[in-house]
Task: inverse folding
């Protein structure tokens, strides 16, 4: 063994510095994770194209069957070839309304999450980098917002200003910006005490450089994973508002309001309308759970370093 | 002595199996034996697989690694093939592991005793009383102060060296047959290293247990090991008794390791580099700097960590700043860089006063003083490419952009001996030594006249560190840059610096040329530092422990004092009633050699 190595390496051999462990591999998902990605992609497609694919308009009343015979009572019809998931409490096709509703629910939540992110990250990073009194003022004001239950805050605001889609987006965006602020600030505080930020300070770099080049790129990944969770919260928040009748207003369909509208159908059992309230509830559940599992999966493969940073 | 081996490693192979990729062999067929009472050193640089091999003795691999082949036989049982429960029972009882950082190993919320005896109680080996008695026995053997009381303290209440020894007690409490020590002294100051080495050596021979000692430091190996296994890239290069390896290394790689060992600082060995005032006219004057952290109500720091430091530096000169951790070396560098405004005093750059805060300095002033951080791992933004990192100072200070910038970046990369194709890599994709080169290159890109190097080699392996030092020497010659070089390692500093400033507990205790520092008269602290640098020969540890001053010096720790000489508690020539009440006066010889001590020159000459 000893001599063997020497024979292969003449005196002139230069011993290279040994390298550290190979760099981390890219994102990988487990089987369940992959299935969940499929579910999310499915819902995104429905949200984008559902209005073209849906058999009926969201406000269309099913009045007659395929042969042209008028129904006595079109509400809460059980599933058939004509209406795959039955009809709702006033006789609209449940499947079509879920497909139309995907756009409203996912669309509003998505835009609201982006709004929450822009506001939250901007303020959070600023508070962390600026420090001192700017940080104190921002953090305490955000604490005030966080101290209210979000649904209460939503109810009060909607009671004061009325409900509309832009209103819902701004409302949920701002409420959830508070929690994004917390995370962005906490992550940035971790980064700004690092040596490489100190190096840029010693170099004399300005505020903007430190924020955009040193801090933001390093908090982007954990924030991106957090985006999914925030999106779920906002979907649930808007659905809850709609369920209470304060969210998306009829006749526009939305998963949360569909659950509420058709609640009375639950009493009739599966033959008569329970599916009209269970189907949109399942839609909400499948989307949010799928996003959640994907995030857990990514965090797990990242050695838990991301999940550790989740507040 | 040559009885049955306690531990046998037989053709051990360990691989990493990354997802969906071919397995990578980390350990490539290792065989060696450990006999009772023997200390076997595994030596190699980082990445050579030494820790991975040592953990096999516990039947353990780090996550992501798998045993591919071979056996690790401990007391006639293969640790690898045992099931989890059997392994668990044998760990602690038959084999114990001592990790590198004691500070990270102890739970700060539990007392030391609770943690030391924990494994004995878990295994049901001893009753609580016997275990505690055994712990006190070990504390005594490890020469810890107040052995019957120290166990009731919490980890933060004892010093780093004591904690390291307490960890040894934790490992030894069940009288294991085999002890695995993973770089137990690497993170320590030289003086603390002696203290820990001495205790570990003593306790191993008293307990008659065998040990596997993992390190990259040959000089340490020479003191503690009986048998040495030299590793490179997961393979054994050479193995033999410690005398054979140290006195007569056969393999090229071992020779290279020996060459990289820090030379013993000796005045005569240093070629007196005559600092000729060359083309430039750069000067840095640090005058009476005091500094501390935090602000009290009077806008001054409540407690100073630097007191009245003055030194100067001319063009092309290298000033080494030396002292143990906690002496204020890094604080001084941060004050010069403007990261920590001084409480009082002045910094003059080319006779012009520098503003104490980096925010108020002009672009030229910022550009001429560059700070190189200790840990290249954290000093490089992981999201930027090497090109961006090195290029930014060029754009920021000199307005160089685009293609021209890329060209200059490549020139600088050549200067620090980095391959040009690294320009698009990120810090995560290069090795530790290469990161330190990038770190240096970024400082050089500003085209400074002064580089502040804060412990740039202490986080690196011996070989890699030696390479970085020779690079710095080359740069100093080629560019005429001046250096302030901070280190706790006297041998590194003395091989590179022209002048040395010795700091102790925030005060300057001695300064002068390298020649003056390394030859008498010595400040007792400087003498302690010189005596503590391990030498590459068997028996050095015992010799140095006999020298006067070492014993007193290694038993104390750095303490900030308000009255008297801070070194009082560790000094072997202290004058009671004088040294502990009055701060020592600074005596300056005609040549500029400055010593702060109450003792006469005659005493210090010894």
Result:
């Amino acid at each position: 063994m000893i001599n063997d190595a020497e024979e292969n390496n003449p005196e002139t051999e230069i011993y290279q510095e040994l390298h550290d462990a190979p760099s981390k591999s890219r994102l990988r998902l487990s089987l369940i994770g992959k299935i969940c990605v499929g579910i999310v992609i499915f819902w995104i497609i429905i949200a984008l194209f559902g209005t073209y694919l849906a058999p009926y308009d969201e406000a269309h009343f099913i009045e007659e069957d395929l042969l042209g015979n008028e129904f006595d009572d079109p509400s809460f019809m059980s599933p058939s070839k004509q209406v795959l998931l039955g009809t709702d409490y006033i006789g609209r096709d449940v499947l079509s309304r879920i497909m139309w509703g995907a756009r409203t629910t996912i669309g509003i939540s998505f835009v609201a999450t982006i709004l929450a992110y822009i506001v939250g990250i901007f303020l959070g990073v600023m508070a962390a980098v600026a420090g001192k009194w700017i940080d104190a003022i921002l953090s305490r004001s955000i604490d005030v917002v966080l101290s209210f239950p979000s649904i209460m805050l939503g109810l009060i605001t909607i009671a004061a200003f009325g409900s509309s889609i832009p209103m819902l987006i701004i409302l949920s965006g701002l409420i959830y910006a508070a929690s994004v602020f917390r995370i962005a600030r906490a992550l940035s505080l971790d980064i700004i005490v690092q040596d490489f930020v100190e190096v840029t300070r010693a170099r004399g770099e300005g505020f903007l450089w430190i924020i955009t080049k040193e801090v933001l790129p390093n908090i982007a990944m954990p924030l991106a994973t957090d985006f999914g969770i925030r999106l779920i919260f906002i979907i649930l928040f808007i659905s809850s508002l709609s369920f209470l009748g304060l969210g998306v207003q009829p006749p526009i369909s939305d998963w949360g309001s569909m659950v509420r509208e058709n609640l009375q159908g639950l009493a009739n059992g599966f033959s008569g309308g329970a599916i009209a309230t269970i189907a949109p509830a399942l839609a909400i559940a499948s989307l949010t759970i799928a996003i959640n599992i994907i995030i857990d999966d990514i965090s797990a493969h990242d050695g838990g370093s991301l999940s550790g940073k989740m507040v | 002595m040559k009885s049955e081996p306690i531990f046998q490693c037989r053709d051990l192979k360990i691989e990493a199996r990354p997802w969906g990729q071919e397995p990578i062999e980390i350990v490539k067929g290792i065989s060696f034996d450990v006999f009772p009472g023997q200390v076997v050193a595994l030596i190699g640089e980082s990445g050579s697989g030494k820790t991975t091999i040592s953990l096999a003795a516990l039947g353990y691999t780090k996550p992501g690694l798998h045993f591919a082949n071979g056996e690790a036989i401990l007391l006639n049982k293969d640790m690898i093939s045992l099931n989890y429960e059997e392994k668990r029972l044998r760990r602690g009882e038959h084999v114990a592991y001592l990790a590198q950082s004691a500070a990270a190993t102890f739970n700060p919320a539990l007392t030391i005793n609770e943690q030391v005896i924990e494994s004995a109680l878990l295994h049901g080996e001893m009753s609580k009383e016997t275990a505690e008695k055994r712990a006190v026995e070990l504390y005594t053997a490890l020469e810890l102060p107040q052995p019957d009381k120290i166990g009731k303290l919490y980890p933060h209440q004892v010093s780093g060296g004591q904690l390291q020894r307490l960890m040894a007690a934790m490992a030894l409490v069940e009288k294991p047959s085999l002890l695995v020590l993973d770089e137990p002294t690497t993170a320590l100051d030289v003086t603390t290293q002696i203290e820990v080495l001495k205790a570990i050596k003593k306790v191993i021979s008293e307990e008659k247990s065998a040990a596997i000692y993992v390190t990259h430091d040959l000089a340490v190996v020479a003191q503690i090991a009986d048998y040495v296994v030299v590793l490179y890239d997961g393979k054994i290069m050479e193995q033999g008794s410690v005398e054979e390896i140290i006195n007569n290394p056969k393999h090229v790689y071992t020779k290279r390791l020996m060459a990289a060992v820090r030379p013993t600082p000796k005045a005569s060995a240093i070629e007196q580099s005559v600092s000729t005032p060359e083309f430039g006219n750069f000067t840095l004057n640090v005058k009476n700097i005091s500094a501390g952290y935090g602000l009290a109500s009077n806008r001054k720091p409540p407690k100073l960590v630097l007191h009245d430091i003055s030194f100067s530096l001319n063009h092309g000169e290298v000033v080494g700043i030396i002292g143990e951790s906690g002496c204020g070396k890094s604080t001084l560098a941060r004050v010069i860089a403007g990261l920590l405004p001084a409480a009082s005093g002045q910094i003059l750059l080319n006779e012009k006063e520098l503003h104490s805060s980096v925010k108020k300095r002009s672009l030229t002033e910022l550009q001429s003083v560059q700070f190189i951080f200790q840990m290249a791992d954290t000093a490089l933004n992981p999201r930027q490419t090497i090109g961006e990192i090195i290029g930014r100072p060029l754009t920021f200070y000199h307005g160089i952009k685009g293609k021209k910038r890329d060209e200059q970046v490549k020139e600088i990369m050549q200067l620090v001996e980095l391959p040009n194709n690294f320009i698009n890599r990120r810090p995560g994709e290069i090795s530790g030594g290469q990161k330190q080169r990038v770190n240096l290159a970024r400082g050089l890109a500003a085209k400074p006249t002064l580089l502040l190097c804060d412990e740039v080699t202490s986080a690196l392996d011996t070989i890699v560190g030696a390479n970085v030092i020779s690079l710095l020497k080359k740069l100093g010659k080629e560019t005429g840059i001046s250096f302030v070089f901070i280190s706790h390692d006297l041998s590194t500093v003395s091989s590179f610096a022209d002048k040395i400033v010795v700091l102790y507990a925030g005060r300057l205790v001695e300064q002068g040329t390298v020649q003056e520092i390394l030859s008498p008269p010595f400040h007792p602290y400087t003498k302690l530092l010189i005596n503590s640098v391990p030498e590459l020969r068997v028996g050095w540890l015992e010799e140095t422990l006999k020298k006067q001053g070492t014993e007193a010096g290694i038993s104390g720790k750095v303490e900030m004092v308000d009255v008297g000489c801070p070194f009082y508690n560790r000094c072997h020539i202290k004058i009671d009633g004088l040294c502990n009440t009055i701060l020592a006066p600074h005596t300056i010889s005609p040549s500029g050699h400055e010593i702060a001590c109450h003792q006469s020159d005659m005493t210090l000459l010894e």
